[in-house]
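ok trying this again, last paste got cut off
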Amino acid sequence: MSEIEQHQQAIKEFIDTANNMKDKGVSIKVVSSAMMTANAVYASYSVAGNEGALTDSGIEKITTAFAEKLAQVREIRKAEAAAKGAIIEENTPCAEG
């Protein structure tokens, strides 16, 4: 399996796990927060290992990578919505829920 295929499979497994938690009654906010915390723990490990702690530059590196992924997801979601005929407004605030 290629890295791209592994990446897509990992995404699917994380989303499936999150949806299973939601289906068991865990709020979406709690699921999202837990996933972000788990991501922070694993990202810290990927940069600093088990024995190290992130430096400010390590935090910046991870924060930048996460922001780039958020922007990619936003663009994909906007394109999907536009393909369905939705009107996309740039100044619409973040949905709360």
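PB: full thing came through this time. The two ends are 37 Å apart (CA to CA).
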